[in-house]
Fold this protein.
Amino acid sequence: MTQPIALVTGASAGLGVDFARQLSATGARLVLVARRKERIEALAAELGNARVVALDLSEADAAERLMADLAGHGEHVDLLVNNAGFGLTGRIHTQDGKRLRQMIDLNCGVLTELCRAVVPGMRERRRGGILNVASTAAFQPGPGMAVYFATKAFVLSLTEALHEELREDGIHVSALRPGPTSTEVGEVAGFPSKLKGAFDKFAADSASVVAAGLAGLDRNQAVVIPGALNKVGAQGHRLLPRALLRKAAGMIKL
């Protein structure tokens, strides 16, 4: 017998912290994963029903090592929250190639590997949940953040496909597509101060975004878009020509 846990990646800041707090409040046993050991240890101490795995998921074989750690502790994943990820601003030829590859590996590669790793057990148990954090960036090209937008499009497409693949197996799969949210994302991505100010002005609070994501997963909603403004904005790709969307996005200088 193994113990069911909720696995939260990127748990050291932003949405990850609120995922941990809200899931902890349900009585779930948590495993928190992030690079910053001190932060997740402090969060685990606050919650009282979590243990930590300090791991840089962008490293080679990180997903495999994480699953081995869970097995070694007699745990199985009942809920996977794929929250780890980051963005980078700048035109592609100005960006560091190694850092770009780390972003792709983390935002797409590790997320996919973890989904693949937990599904067999969930299918056997006929229950489980996977919540992948995408973005409102997923429906349009993003000049100035081209690779980041592309990674989120991957996450959305993958998640919607898995939602259909696994719906008859008793597994809930949802993509959370937040818009601007009060987290560290702008600082990590390198937003210029003027853009960061505009971003912060329209940013939703992290706790409400997380609550919407977990509620949507509970309903087995394939795509969860928190906030009325984001829902309206998400329809832009249906109402406007794609050429216009990319030109409009390109007018924002990053």
Observations:
- The mean pLDDT is 88.
- The domain at 3-250 is CATH 3.40.50.720 (Rossmann fold).
- The longest helix spans residues 97-125.
